[in-house]
Structure formats: structure tokens, C-alpha cells
């Protein structure tokens, strides 16, 4: 089995080799932080979105959907606080021209026998403590300082003082004196609407889909026949000019979100609603094939809450590069509706018929990135094993999200009865499910090609199908078990596996 870093490399290679994910604009050298989804990636991504929409919109009575624009009236972002607060702390290395997020750059003084002999710096990752200790020992050796090295206590660069800026080495060069003080960098992409390119025409690509929901709150209440508590769900593109896009599609500059704003009465117990949503999201992840054992919770400390939040818990996933945020579940109170109401001058409230009172509802927001779910599914599904003495890569994707639900193979391609039967079954299945047809190469090789892209079943039409009326063979990707069934049974079998 591949080691964690190798595993990421193997997955990235597989994504490129088999057409899941490509670097965007690859023929021009790529564009950092942007990715294109190839034929198989587009299928997997659509299946994730479809599962989410089915489970949270179609199968519930209390959530309706929305599809708002990517560019809103620019005042939206003033009211929401994004123009003032949607910033990351940026630090530059003047020598190497590298840019870092200051909260992902860690430093510590190197103290030997009570004396500070210099500083070390490392970039945030799982092994940063060990790396910092190694650098500190190197420095102690280089300066030939006798005595005990005190424990290395890392802090992030936002906690550094002006006196320390000149002393902390750049992670790029290892030399002190080239890092700037941290400064705020707004992550929204700007554009212009209309022919004028002046301040009056500035607009922004949305950095989250959520605000499209809040600014449509009144429209949905007036038209949607909703009753409190209720949710509005939206999925779509979001854009953030991330300082440091990294870990493949985990942190990119253009990505997709699936967000719900779930409105509750201000009298309701928001902590219970928040907890229920966290549990509901954990259960959903499990239902689509992300194991509970790889998920954990990170409640944000009060002092680190986003400007809109009363409480946020991140659902974390054990990615090969470390435990990182998969989803945020925030209790946003009445912050957004109040802000938009005040700035627009429109009443964005709810009239409670029973109590004959008006109030601004509070909101719980589960928000997840499609691309992160995609990566969590791929890293869970990726396995290397051996079949009949041959190494195989297999994606054990659940059928609901797998790009192809089955592949149809004629055992040989020079026997017209076998080929015709296989093509007929393929055409019949294709009316209902996304299936693949492959007639070329040894049957073992064809199975392997499908294993690698996560196709759960391989259906083979062989001599016995034709000569003995024995039905077709259905091979299970994970157990390798083969069973025979009729073509009618195959249709019912797949339908049951996909739709339950
Ligand atoms: N409306 C709330 C909101 O946007 P967030 O924690 O900033 O909250 C929600 O983002 C989710 O969107 C994250 O949990 C993550 O899954 C996804 N996400 C955020 N930034 C991302 C990025 N740069 N690349 C990929 N996904 C991202």
C-alpha cells in the first residue's frame, strides 16, 4: 500500500491518466489553483452533487433549492462584511518573492542555556514540529553553542512582534531579514460590470454561495410556501484568490460549494439545531462512502470565530496530507439577514401567525466544498492490491457516486452472436444508467481498466450465455466474485444497487 505522500501522488497521477482531473489551461503551462474535471471527474462530481440535492432537497419537506447568480450587486459584500473582513494575513519573502499565509508560517526562538541564539521557521504541516527541532539543532551545531536546547515552541507568524520580523528566517531561503510584516489581503476576485472600468463598475465573483441565499430570502418566503423552520439550499461555483492554493483540489481558487441556510426561530435552541445538523452531515458523509472513522469534529475556539458566527464546528477528514476541514457547520445567528435588511432598507423578517409577531430568523449553515468531498471519496476509495498475481489499482467507490455503474464486455470480439448480445445489453442498460462498453483486449485487462476507475460491476457475455442460455456473468469489483444472471435480472440488480 502506498505511503501517505506517495498515495497523494498516485491519486493525482490516476486523476490525470484516467481523465478525472487536469491542471487548468495545461497547454499554456497551467494556472496555479485552478483545475478542470475530465470526463470521469465530471461524472463523479455530478454524482456527488446529485446525491446531496436528492438527500437534502428532494427527500426532505423542509428545504427548497435556489440557483442565484455568481455576481451579485456589490453592496451585498459590503453588507455581509466580506469587503472589510474576508481577508487572510499575507507575508512576502522579499528575496525569493514567495508569498505565504502568515497563519500557516510557524516560527520559534532557538534557546540554548537560556540564551536566544536565533530563530527557525517552518510551513504548517504534520511534520512541522520535528522539522523545526531539526533546524534548531542544526543552528546550535553551526554556532557551536554548548548547553541544553530548550523545547521548541512554535507560534504562527501573525503572533510575531515587529522586533522579530528581521530575525525570523524565510522558509524559502533559511536566512533572516527578508520576511515582511503580515498584512491583510482580501480574497475576493474583482471584476467590472458594463463598459466602464471605474470604481462605480466594480463587482466581485462570489466567495461563497451563501449570500445569494440571504439576498433572496424574501423572494423565497413570498413564493415558496415555506414554514419555519426551513432551509434554502444552493450549490455552485465560488471563487477565492487564495494566497497559497495547495494539496491538489483541496484548496483551489475556483471551487464548488453545497450550502444550506437553515432558518430557525430566535426562540429555538440554536445549540441543539447546530448539533443536529452536525450529526446529520456526518451521517450523510457515511451514506455516500466516507467512513465515520476518518471524520472528526473541530469546534472553533470562541476567539477565532468568523465575523458572522456564534459557533462553528468543522467536520474534519483524515486526508493523506493530514486531518483537514471537509465541512463547516456554523450558527450565523441573525447576522446576515439583519445586515442585508439594514443596508437594503427591505424587511427581511418572518411573520409568525400563531404568536402574531415579526422577527428575523436565526440560521444554521452547513457548508461543504464539492471538490473536498470528491478528494475525500477518492482517497478513501484508492487501493492497491494483487489479483491473480498481478498488481491492481482499484477505486472502491460506492455505486451511487461511481462514474460508470457497470461495464459490458463481449468475451471475444470475433463471435458475432456474443458481440450482438453484448451491444444489445449495453444499449438497454445505457437508457437507465451510465455504463461503459469495452470489446478490446484480454478480459482480465478490461476488468483491471474498470477497477482503476471505480466501476463496481463487470458484465460479461460469454460462450455459455449464447450456447447454454446460462445468462451473463456479473463480476464484483471488490470481492471479485462472479455470479450468473439473466439480462432482465441485471437491470433489476443494478437498479436496486443504485436506488436502494
Ligand atoms: N458560507 C460559509 C463558508 O463559505 P468556509 O468554511 O469558508 O465557509 C465552506 O467554506 C467550505 O467550502 C469548506 O468547508 C470547504 O469544504 C470549502 N472550501 C472553502 N475554501 C475552499 C477552497 N479554497 N478550495 C476548495 N474548497 C474550499
Helical content class: 25-40%
Strand content: 25-35%
- Overall pLDDT confidence: 95
Distance, first to last CA? 32 Å
Side-by-side strand order of the widest sheet: 3-12-13-19-16-15-14
* Main pleated-sheet profile: 7 strands, mixed
Report low-confidence residues grouped into runs of 5 or more.
none
Number of helices: 15
Q: What is the global morphology?
A: globular
**Class of secondary structure makeup:** alpha+beta
Bound small molecules, deduplicated: glycyl-adenosine-5'-phosphate
Report the strand count.
26
Query: What is the radius of gyration?
Result: 27 Å
Notes on the structure:
The chain has 500 residues and is of the alpha+beta class. Helices cover 32% and strands 29% of the residues. It contains 15 helices and 26 strands. The strands form eight sheets. It has a seven-stranded mixed sheet with strand order 3-12-13-19-16-15-14. Strands 23-22-24-25-26 form a five-stranded mixed sheet, with helices on both faces. It has a three-stranded antiparallel sheet with strand order 5-4-9. Helix 2 (39-58) crosses helix 11 (370-381). The mean pLDDT is 95. The structure holds glycyl-adenosine-5'-phosphate (GAP). The site of glycyl-adenosine-5'-phosphate has 19 residues, from strand 13, strand 16, strand 19 and helix 11.
Amino acid at each position: 500500500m502506498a505511503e501517505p505522500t506517495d498515495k497523494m501522488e498516485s491519486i493525482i497521477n490516476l486523476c490525470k491518466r484516467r481523465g478525472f482531473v487536469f491542471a487548468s489551461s495545461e497547454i499554456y503551462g497551467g494556472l496555479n489553483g485552478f483545475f478542470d474535471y475530465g470526463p470521469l471527474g465530471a461524472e463523479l462530481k455530478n454524482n456527488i452533487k446529485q446525491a446531496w440535492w436528492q438527500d437534502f432537497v428532494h427527500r426532505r419537506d423542509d428545504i427548497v433549492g435556489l440557483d442565484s447568480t455568481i455576481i451579485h450587486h456589490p453592496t451585498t459584500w459590503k453588507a455581509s462584511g466580506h469587503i472589510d473582513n474576508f481577508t487572510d494575513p499575507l507575508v512576502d519573502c522579499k528575496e525569493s518573492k514567495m508569498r505565504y499565509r502568515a497563519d500557516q508560517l510557524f516560527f520559534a526562538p532557538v534557546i540554548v542555556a537560556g540564551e536566544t541564539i536565533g530563530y527557525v521557521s517552518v510551513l504548517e504541516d504534520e511534520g512541522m514540529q520535528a522539522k523545526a527541532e531539526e533546524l534548531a539543532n542544526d543552528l546550535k551545531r553551526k554556532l557551536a553553542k554548548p548547553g541544553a536546547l530548550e523545547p521548541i515552541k512554535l507560534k504562527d507568524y501573525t503572533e510575531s512582534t515587529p522586533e522579530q520580523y528581521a530575525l525570523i528566517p524565510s522558509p524559502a531561503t533559511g536566512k533572516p531579514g527578508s520576511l515582511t510584516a503580515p498584512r491583510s489581503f482580501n480574497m475576493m476576485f474583482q471584476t467590472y460590470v458594463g463598459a466602464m472600468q471605474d470604481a462605480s463598475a466594480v463587482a466581485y465573483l462570489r466567495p461563497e454561495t451563501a449570500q445569494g441565499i440571504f439576498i433572496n430570502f424574501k423572494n423565497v418566503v413570498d413564493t415558496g410556501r415555506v414554514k419555519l423552520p426551513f432551509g434554502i439550499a444552493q450549490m455552485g461555483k465560488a471563487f477565492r484568490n487564495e494566497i497559497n492554493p495547495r494539496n491538489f483540489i483541496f484548496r483551489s481558487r475556483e471551487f464548488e460549494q453545497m450550502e444550506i441556510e437553515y432558518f430557525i426561530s430566535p426562540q429555538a435552541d440554536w445549540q441543539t439545531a447546530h448539533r443536529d445538523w452536525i450529526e446529520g452531515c456526518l451521517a450523510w458523509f457515511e451514506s455516500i462512502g466516507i467512513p465515520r472513522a476518518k471524520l472528526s469534529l473541530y469546534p472553533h475556539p470562541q476567539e477565532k470565530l468568523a465575523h458572522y458566527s456564534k459557533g462553528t464546528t468543522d467536520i474534519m477528514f483524515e486526508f493523506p496530507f493530514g486531518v483537514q476541514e471537509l465541512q463547516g457547520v456554523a450558527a450565523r445567528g441573525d447576522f446576515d439577514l439583519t445586515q442585508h435588511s439594514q443596508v437594503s432598507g427591505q424587511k427581511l423578517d418572518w411573520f409568525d401567525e400563531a404568536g402574531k409577531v415579526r422577527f428575523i430568523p436565526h440560521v444554521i449553515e452547513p457548508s461543504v466544498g464539492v471538490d473536498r468531498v470528491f478528494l475525500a471519496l477518492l482517497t478513501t476509495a484508492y487501493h492497491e492490491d494483487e489479483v491473480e498475481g498481478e498488481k491492481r489499482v482499484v477505486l472502491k467507490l460506492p455505486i451511487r457516486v461511481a462514474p460508470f455503474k457497470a461495464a459490458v464486455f463481449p468475451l471475444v470480439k470475433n463471435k458475432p452472436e456474443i458481440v450482438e448480445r453484448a451491444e444489445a445489453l449495453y444499449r438497454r442498460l445505457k437508457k437507465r444508467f451510465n455504463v461503459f462498453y469495452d470489446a478490446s483486449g484480454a478480459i482480465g485487462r478490461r476488468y483491471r481498466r474498470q477497477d482503476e476507475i471505480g466501476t463496481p460491476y463487470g458484465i460479461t457475455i460469454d460462450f455459455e450465455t449464447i450456447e447454454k442460455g446460462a445468462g451473463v456473468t456479473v463480476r464484483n469489483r471488490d470481492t471479485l466474485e462472479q455470479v450468473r444472471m439473466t439480462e432482465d435480472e441485471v437491470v433489476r440488480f443494478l437498479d436496486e444497487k443504485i436506488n436502494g
